[in-house]
Amino acid sequence: MKKTYLAMCFNLSTSVIDGLGEVEGSAAVWLPMIPSGEVKGRDGRMWSNSEPDAIVEAFDAKLPFDVEHATEILGPKGEAADACGWILALENRKGEIWAQVEWNYLGRYKITDKLYLYYSPAFNYDLQGVITSMSSAGLTNKPNFYVPALNRMEDNTMTLAELIAAALGLPKTATEEEGVVAINALKNDKQVALNRAKNPDLSKFVPKETYTVALNRAETAEAKVAGIEATEQEALVDDAIKQGKVSPANKDMYVGLCRTEEGREQFKAFVGAAAAIVDDKTTKQPKDTATNSKLEDHEVAMCRNMGISQEDFIKSKESMKKEA
What we know:
Layout lengths: L9 E2 L3 H4 L9 E7 L2 E4 L5 E4 L2 H6 L5 E5 L2 H4 L11 E9 L2 E8 L1 H8 L5 E8 L5 E10 L19 H8 L8 H23 L9 H35 L8 H7 L3 H13 L6 H4 L13 H10 L3 H14 L1
Parallel strand pairs: 5-9
Antiparallel strand pairs: 1-8, 2-7, 3-4, 5-6, 6-7, 8-9
C-alpha cells in the first residue's frame, strides 16, 4: 500500500513540552517537518522532497516558529509577528526533514493550555515543485501540507461584497460607488434593449412576415430565370446539332457546359469555328417507305460518324440481307 501523509497534521501533545524528544540539557525538541518523497496537501497541490540534504545545507540561521504563519503573512506588512519558539537545526532522517525546536514562554503557554494542537511548516520551492529550503513554521489549528510555501489551509470563501464584485466584472478592491455605477450601467443596457425590441430600426430589421414574402418572391424569380436559362441552353445546343457541328449523343454534355455564361461563350466560339461533321442529308431522318425501314438511333449515329447518308446505309443493309 502506498504510504500517504497528512503533511502538517502533526499533533502537539503535552509530551512535546514534558520531555519526550527533548534534547539533553535543554528545552529543545525534535519535530518532523517535511515528509520524504512526494508531498501532497489537502487542496490537491503537490511538492517533492527529493533533495533533503540540500534543504538541510540551506539552513544557515535560526528560523522563527510563530503563530498562524505570522512571519510569512503579517511580517511583510509591518505587523506584529512574534515568535513562540525557534528552529535551531535541521536533520535529514531517512528522507524526512526534522527540526530542532526551542519554545519560549509564549509557545509553552499556547501548547500546554491547548490553544493550539497542530503545527505547519513554511518552505521555499522551485518551479518544478521541488522543496529547496525551510522558511519558518507556525502553530495552527487548520494544518494543511497542501499549500504553496505556507503550509496552512487558506480560507478561499468569498464575502458577499467580493461575490457581487466578481459578478459585475470588478476587482475585489472595487468600492461601493464603482459597484453602483456598474449596476446602473447594466440597468441602462437592459432598458435600451427593451426599447429596441419595442421599436425596432426598420433599416436594420424587418418583420418576419415581410421577410418571408420577399424570400418567396426571390425564389420564384430565380426558378423562372433558371427555367428560361435552361431552355436557352438546350436551344443553343440543338441549333449546333442541326448545323451538324456536334453529335446528338453529346447533347447533355454541351448543355451542362452552357449553364454558365463563360461556358456558353466558349460553346458559341467552338461552334463558330468547327466544321460540320455531316452534311444536311445525313442530319435528316428518312421517311418510312415500302423500300426502306426507319433506322435505329445507334444506326443513325453510326451514319453520322462514318459520314454516309442514311439512304446509302439502308441500301447496304438490305443488300447484305439479300446476300445472306
